[in-house]
Amino acid sequence: MKEYCIVVMGVCGSGKSTISKLLAQNIGSNFIDADDLHPRANIEKMQNAIALNDDDRMPWLERINDVFYSIQRRHTSMVIACSALKKKYRDYIRSSCKNVIFVHLYGDIDLIKQRMSKRSGHYMKENMIQSQFDTLEFPKDEDRVINIEISAPIGEILDKALIEIEKIN
Fold first, then answer.
1. CA-to-CA distance for 42 and 31, rounded, in angstroms?
2. pLDDT tens digits for 46-100?
3. Backbone torsions φ then ψ of 143, nearest 5 degrees
4. Domains in the chain, please, with CATH?
5. Cα–Cα distance measured from residue 51 to residue 106, given in angstroms and rounded to the nearest whole number
6. Closest CA to 103 of 30, 42, 18, 45
7. What one-character DSSP code corresponds to residue 158?
8. Which residue ranges does UniProt annotate as crossing the membrane (predicted)?
9. Are 150 and 105 in contact (CB under 8 A)?
10. Which residues of 88-107 are buried (b: 16+ CB within 10 A; e: fewer)?
11. What is the reported pTM?
């Protein structure tokens, strides 16, 4: 059985959790939503519509690194839904998992706003969407990154991700 370290990344509302769960099911892997790894202080900031900065994100990235470190030691697989908006965040994640694959889900801001307006029960509020786009460093020339535009149906996005992951892995 192949071992996978996969991060499904993108701005809020891009479908990270949905695609991550489906990927995990398809490859027989575990799934974690990195939102569940945020320290309390980060969650409270986001609930109050305060954008996180790099210092806020470091403990969160350390937790993600710890998960991948553990997964590799056990020779198993993991899919994590994680924004990973900046290259230095992705590089930090790569530091614990050299064979990590990033699946970047992207779309235009109007599509994301439309999706976010339909969400309930999530601490990322619609008014924080612009800060996510401002922070995003699009991973166009990075190794082991798959960029997938999200206007297609979920099944097509999943199929494309699975095909591209197999090409890389």
1. 21
2. 888 787 889 999 999 999 999 988 888 888 889 999 999 999 999 999 988 888 9
3. -70, 145
4. 5-168 (3.40.50.300)
5. 20
6. 18
7. H
8. none
9. yes
10. ebbebbbebbeebbbbbbbb
11. 0.90
Q: What is the pLDDT of residues 89-138, one digit of tens each?
A: 999 999 888 889 999 999 998 888 887 777 665 445 556 788 889 999 99
* In contact, 2 and 134? CB cutoff 8 Å: no
Strand order across the 145-149 sheet? 30-33, 78-81, 5-9, 101-106, 145-149
Strands 30-33 and 145-149: unpaired
Could you give the CA distance from residue 144 to residue 166 in angstroms, rounded to a whole number? 11
